[in-house]
Design a protein that fits this description.
Chain B: This is ABC transporter ATP-binding protein. The complex is a heterodimer of chains A (407) and B (508). With 407 residues, chain A is mainly alpha-helical. Chain A has a domain of 241 residues. Chain A contains 17 helices and no strands. Chain B contains 18 helices and 22 strands. In chain B, 33% of the residues lie in helices and 26% in strands. Chain B is α/β, with parallel strands linked by helices. In chain B, helix 4 crosses helix 5. Classes of the chains: A mainly alpha (407), B alpha/beta (508). At the A-B interface, helix 10 and helix 11 of A face helix 10, helix 11 and strand 18 of B.
Chain lengths: 407, 508
């Protein structure tokens, strides 16, 4: 009996896996990645001095060019691999796995923020306000983190919760404004990003936020009791944040698949008119969706602050806000997809740093690859045309296309 | 001009919309194409009009094969189409709409409005319409707008005119006027193609009836055919066109009392003007009227989808006016919206999820925020069986189903709770005959279970079929409440705003 249920469960998982990989959207996603990587490879060759020098006489001695190009590509991908996955030349196990911890460190805030964005996407809201929500969360967390001095444990929890609350409020205001006034969330979140940045810039001029002994716009460091330490020992950057990211993946998945909250978000996101006719309140659901989205994104900001940056500065949010949008789109707003997308982007970033250091190729190539992936994802017709896939009869409208449509 | 369709075939994906269709359209003849929704009538006409290209088969105009790559090409060969939804620009005048796309120019290459105006007057006089070329289209009644469409086609010298469900938006009187116009056009030698699923009209007007079913021509019906013979041919089996129901029970155990209800429409004008009426349990009240006379706003206000400006609505004694939809549904109101695709179902959701859209708290399907998948699945399977929803299973996406099956999902959801008031707006619009029979039977069953039932319908056949009493609405007001025995022409006059007593007088 037990073996039969186990077998049955395995069979169901296998079925689900198979469905996932034959699902057209997954195929398109994979092809978009492949195509972007291919174009990135071309870019590597074009920006490599040796390869370009040999291109000048490619018709005289084509072998030189292809050797140089092959050399460039080979070393670039080798460097990316050793920077993002494992380093076989390392003397010890810690060094061997260090690249993986780099990938995880880059992926942590992207995964959590991407999950947060997928919540708003599910409600049909194209939240581009992750940057602002991260900034406000970092501000709130830093205040708890360096202004209050509390016992370990409690201090960290309160630091993170402050960020969650700030993100929820910053996102929730947008949802409320949309619900009450009909203002478009894309415009609102862009404006709220600006406001958040300017608030941050202003706060950093105040004595309360100024680090003593410097004029640079930076705050004092968080107390150790409010910080996340490295999970895999000194010299690595992965924190317990990655565990939170995995936990959030499960939580968001459950919310989407098993809870009335996810059901209402999807109902209002798919057809607000039918949802309203069935007695749901789109205004409430939009506000709740944006608040939840902001809360999770805020958590990403707080974990980034407490685990990586440790103090407030103008560039505290880095490019997490926009990268997380790409991750959420890459993961098709599915929690597991978002986690995988974040790990992939984290690996690209970690590998890109290594590639720049060892081959002289610019890390910008990695950014171009990331951008190309999203570009292809947003133009699925391009992918289906290039790879000759059959056009599907009914196409789901992605949030980004919805933005295009509403212009 | 004669059009011959020779084995025309058109497929969309796996669906064969037109399967080797052969038809002849003769000048001076009104050719009715009769078929259910989804039988392939519109696809066929869009092929003739150049909106679609056939996958196989030929179109011959006067024995010469033609290929219409666009409606413009079809128009140039003398084919005109009057669409179900008018292709007019409301802020333009009649003359401007008629000239649009084929504008006369002066010698200085400027638009020649005077010529356009003369043209409109000439064409409309020739066919005996009265059309003011300078009237704004938005200010014209629907029936007159339709004449603008006809003049637009005639102005381009159309020899073949295709009418796609032209009476859907007309009052019975306007329909009569349209039929007179069609007769005159055919007497002038024009070929008329009249697409419809309304048996009464087809019988009244046709010189030739071709019946289409599942994309094939099943044959020509003899002109003397009765309505049930036509229906049987259209559906492929014998159908009962009238429902047998017991006399209404009419009690006050479940009642809804509306008093002084005023509702403002989306355009800011008063759409429902001080309406007072009571709905009793065990009785079906059918609200008749030409579309756009406040029926939609009235029922939306009852359900809470539209704010109430003033007045009161009590369901079993409890005031619900101005309450949230959720609370009104909880008070025992069930609602089938008129546009089921937009408001009734979520196409990207599964059947089982669509069935619990309004059951997210307090029921067997949830505890707290957790949803019970097994209960939802069971409910889905039960509803599919009970309502005969034709679908692969409860996890099929609602958007992939036919209109009839989508409507059954909405009905199954709304009728799952005990109801004091059941409102169904255009409950069978766009449905096949089989689904219509089913939906009507369920509506009567709900009446017999004791609910007060309100039906909004622009189809008089449906009104007569279901109603225990008929309420006619015109410009946001109730013109009169009459028994179901009231003759059709009286109701028709009432739909044009003439009070019941007067209407009975003039109908005689």
């Amino acid at each position: 009996m037990t073996t039969r249920t186990t077998a049955g469960r395995l069979g169901r998982w296998a079925d689900a896996l198979l469905r996932a990989f034959t699902d057209r959207s997954v195929v398109v996603t994979v092809l978009a990645v492949v195509l972007a990587m291919a174009l990135g490879t071309v870019l590597m060759v074009l920006t490599d001095a040796d390869a370009m020098a040999s291109l000048a006489y490619v018709f005289g001695r084509p072998g030189d060019f292809f050797a140089a190009a092959g050399q460039t590509i080979g070393s670039a991908y080798a460097a990316m691999f050793t920077g993002a996955v494992v380093d076989p030349t390392a003397p010890d196990a810690a060094g061997f796995f260090r690249p993986l911890t780099e990938t995880l460190a880059w992926a942590t805030p992207l995964a959590i923020a991407g999950l947060g964005l997928s919540i708003s996407f599910r409600a049909g809201l194209f939240n581009v306000g992750a940057q602002g929500q991260i900034i406000m969360a970092a501000v709130a967390s830093s205040m708890v983190g360096f202004m209050l001095h509390l016992p370990p444990g409690i201090h960290l929890v309160l630091t993170l919760l402050a960020g969650v609350a700030a993100g929820a409020i910053w996102g929730g205001i947008v949802g409320l404004l949309k619900a009450k006034t009909g203002a478009h969330e894309v415009i609102l979140t862009i404006m709220f990003n600006q406001i958040a940045y300017l608030v941050l810039a202003y706060l950093l001029t105040l004595p309360a936020f100024q680090r003593p002994g410097t004029n640079a716009p930076m705050s004092p460091a968080l107390d150790a009791s409010a910080s996340l330490g490295p999970l895999f020992g000194a010299g690595t950057r992965t924190t317990a944040g990655i565990v939170v990211a995995i936990g959030m993946t499960v939580l968001v998945w459950w919310t989407f698949q098993r809870s009335t909250i996810g059901f209402q978000l999807a109902a209002v996101g798919s057809n607000p008119f039918a949802a309203r006719t069935a007695g749901m309140r789109p205004a409430v659901v939009w506000t709740m969706g944006m608040a939840l989205s902001g809360a999770v994104i805020g958590l990403a900001g707080s974990i980034h602050l407490a685990g990586d940056e440790h103090f407030l500065k103008l560039g505290i949010a880095g490019s997490i806000g926009s990268d997380a949008i790409m991750v959420a789109l890459l993961g098709r707003s599915h929690p597991v997809g978002v986690l995988v997308g974040a790990l992939f982007f984290g690996a690209l970033r970690a590998g890109g740093v290594n590639m720049q250091a060892y081959t002289g190729l610019s890390i910008d190539i990695v950014l171009v690859i990331q951008a190309l992936i999203v570009l292809f994802l947003c133009a699925p017709a391009l992918i289906t045309k290039i790879f000759g896939l059959r056009r599907s009869e009914r196409r789901a409208i992605t949030p980004l296309q919805k933005v295009e449509l509403s212009r | 001009m004669r059009i011959l369709l020779d084995e025309v075939t058109k497929t969309f994906g796996d669906v064969v919309a037109n399967d080797h269709i052969s038809l002849t359209i003769n000048p001076g003849e009104i050719h009715c194409i009769l078929g259910e929704n989804g039988a392939g009538k519109s696809t066929l006409m869009n092929i003739i009009y150049g909106l679609h290209q056939p996958d196989a088969g030929r179109i011959l105009v006067d024995d010469e094969p033609v290929v219409f790559e666009s409606p413009r090409a079809a128009m140039e060969r003398g084919i005109g189409m009057v669409h179900q939804h008018f292709m007019l620009i409301p802020v333009f005048t009649v003359a401007e709409n008629v000239m649009l796309g084929d504008e006369p120019k002066t010698s200085a290459r400027l638009l020649d409005y005077a010529a356009a105006r003369r043209h409109v007057v000439a064409v409309s006089e020739r066919f005996g319409f009265q059309l003011d070329p300078d009237a704004l289209v938005s200010e014209l009644p629907v029936g007159v707008q339709q004449r603008v469409e006809i003049v637009k086609a005639l102005a381009r010298d159309a020899q073949v005119l295709i009418f796609d469900e032209p009476t859907a938006v007309l009052t019975p009187q306007e329909t009569d006027e349209l039929i007179a116009i069609l007769r005159q056009l055919s007497a002038e030698g024009k070929a008329i193609v009249f697409i419809s699923h309304k048996l009464r009209e087809v019988r009244a007007i046709a010189d030739r009836i071709s019946v289409i079913r599942h994309g094939r021509v099943v044959g020509e019906a003899p002109l003397g055919s009765t309505e049930s013979e036509l229906a049987a041919m259209m559906v492929g089996r014998s159908v009962s066109l009238t429902i047998t129901k017991s006399p209404p029970r009419r009690d006050w155990r479940s009642s809804t009392v509306v008093s002084g209800l005023t509702v403002v429409g989306s355009d800011g004008a008063v759409a429902v003007d001080d309406i007072s009426i009571a709905f009793r349990g065990g009785e079906i009240t059918a609200i008749a009227g030409v579309e756009g006379n406040g029926q939609t706003e009235f029922v939306e206000a009852l359900v809470g989808l539209r704010p109430v400006s003033s007045g009161s609505v009590t369901v079993d004694g409890a005031e619900v006016a101005g309450k949230a939809v959720k609370d009104i549904l909880a008070a025992g109101v069930g609602f089938v919206p008129e546009d089921r695709k937009a408001n009734g179902i979520i196409g990207s959701f599964t059947i089982e999820h669509n069935l619990v859209l309004d059951r997210l708290s307090g029921g067997p399907f949830t505890s707290g925020i957790a949803m019970h998948r097994a209960a939802i699945r069971e409910n889905g399977e039960a509803a599919i069986a009970e309502f005969d929803i034709r679908a692969p299973g409860p996890t099929a996406l609602a958007g992939t189903l036919s209109g009839g099956n989508q409507q059954k999902i909405v009905l199954a959801r709304e009728l799952a709770r005990p109801l004091a008031l059941f409102i169904a707006s255009q409950p069978t619009r766009g449905l096949d005959v089989g689904s219509i029979e089913f939906v009507h039977a369920r509506i009567v069953a709900e009446r017999d279970a004791g609910a007060a039932v309100v039906i909004v319908s622009t189809e008089l056949d449906e009104v007569y079929n279901l109603a225990d009493r008929i309420v006619v609405m015109y410009r946001g007001e109730i013109v009169g409440v009459v028994p179901p025995e009231t003759p059709r022409d009286v109701i028709g006059l009432m739909m044009a705003g003439i009070p019941a007593a007067e209407a009975v007088g003039s109908a005689r």
